[in-house]
Every structure is written in C-alpha cells, then in structure tokens.
Amino acid sequence: MMDNNLLYYIFVLLIIVLAIVVIKKVAGCMIKAIALIIAIALILLIYFACLQ
Asked: pTM here?
C-alpha cells in the first residue's frame, strides 16, 4: 500500500510539473484551461487506478 501511495505522489508531481511547463509554453486562455483540465483528469485517473 505504501508503494502505491509513493508512486501516486510521484505521478502527481510529474503531471503538475508537465502542466506548468505546458502552460508557460502555450499562450491563450482557452488552451491553458484545456491543459489544466487534462492534468486534473490524469491525476484523478491515476488516483482511482491506484486505490482499486
């Protein structure tokens, strides 16, 4: 169980960092919103996949 939590946090940090990099590189409010939604969706997907 501890390994799953550690793995989950590593993935979340990686996704957050990638989302920040994408948002800084890409201009436009609509594209930023889409990138944020995708990052949140990935975090939720990994969260539910690790817990079940």
From this structure: 0.50
DSSP conformational letter for 27: -
d(CA 9, CA 4): 9
How many angstroms separate the Cα of 17 from the Cα of each of 6, 12, 20, 25, 30? Answer: 17, 9, 5, 12, 19
Backbone angles phi, psi at 27, to 5 degrees: -100, 155
**Tens digit of pLDDT at every position of the chain (52 positions):** 556 778 888 888 888 888 888 777 766 677 778 888 898 998 888 888 877 6
